[in-house]
Design a protein that fits this description.
Layout: E1 3-4, E2 7-8, H1 9-36, H2 44-54, H3 58-61, H4 63-75, H5 77-86, H6 88-107, H7 114-144, H8 164-186, H9 191-222, H10 228-232, H11 238-255, H12 259-281
Antiparallel strand pairs: 1-2
């Protein structure tokens, strides 16, 4: 097999796809998280500030998703076809919520009527929440394994993607993004809105830590094969250990109001979790 710098091309594609999706999770994660908090802000002025905070970046961040999908198709076309066949409903829902979210951001300011803005605020916040959950649901199913026949066609039930593990990973992803988004908003707000967001941040950190521990325990007890690489290569354990350390620092950083550093640690958390997923999956992207 042809290699580049001693590494075969499928591995390079694996690294590229993983790197792009990690970039997407970090960059779009905080504005999805900010959107998920939107209905918690009761005043129009507070909602406007929160929207303005992500205004310059939200559409650009989604470009990473397009690049990731293109890289997956180019590098692993069979994986692309199988995954989209198995996860057809989640992906179609994801696309619908992605459209609704973009439309909501653009349309809410077109009219001044309260009902008009409330309608699009609800659409925007629910879309942000569902996008985060659906990303986690797809990831959970990839880790869990799917019903794939010898011809690489999906053979399971059309609602197979709904299961306890995928829903747990979906909830964990939502909590992670809401924490990431709250940290971002603390750096963009002041006054009463800032105080409110700091309270929400502490709650989201607690929720994420509990859900992360629950997901980790579920994986160890019921999906032990996803930890095989870590048992076979003990040096890889440095990644989850570092992840636990970084996550453990988040409550302290929030309490000390070191929000820029907390944002870096939050992004590092996303990166380390994605690296753990990559180690668990490699070299099989979609298992049966």
């Amino acid at each position: 097999m042809a290699t580049f710098l001693g590494i075969d091309y499928p591995t390079w594609w694996f690294l590229l796809v993983g790197g792009v999706f990690t970039g997407y999770a970090i960059l779009d994660g905080f504005d999805l998280g900010a959107g998920a908090w939107h209905l918690f802000f009761k005043k129009e002025s507070s909602r406007r500030v929160a929207l303005n905070a992500i205004g310059p970046v939200w559409d650009g961040n989604e470009v990473w998703l397009v690049i990731g999908g293109g890289a997956l198709f180019a590098g692993f076309p069979v994986v692309y076809a199988t995954l989209f066949s198995a996860m057809y409903i989640p992906f179609m829902l994801f696309l619908a919520f992605l459209i609704f979210r973009a439309v909501s951001i653009e349309f809410r300011s077109k009219e001044a009527m309260a009902w008009w803005r409330k309608l699009w605020d609800i659409s925007y916040s629910i879309s942000s929440i569902m996008l985060a959950v659906l990303l986690g649901v797809v990831l959970g199913n990839v880790l869990l394994g799917m019903s794939i026949g010898p011809d690489l066609e999906f053979t399971g039930h059309w609602l197979e993607f709904i299961n306890p593990y995928s829903l747990l990973v979906g909830a964990t992803t939502l909590a992670l993004f809401m924490m990431h988004g709250a940290i971002y908003l603390t750096m963009k707000t002041e006054g009463r809105l800032f105080v409110k967001i700091t309270i929400l941040l502490r709650r989201s950190i607690a929720a994420f830590i509990l859900l992360f521990l629950g997901t980790s325990l579920y994986t160890l007890l019921w999906i032990p094969h996803q930890t095989d690489h870590f048992r076979q290569q003990p040096l890889l354990l440095a990644v989850p250990v570092l992840a636990f350390i970084v996550i453990g620092f988040l409550p302290w950083l929030a309490r000390k109001r070191k929000y820029w550093l907390a944002f870096i640690f939050s992004g590092l958390t996303v990166s380390l979790l994605m690296i753990m997923v990559a180690f668990a999956l490699f070299p099989v992207l979609v298992a049966s």
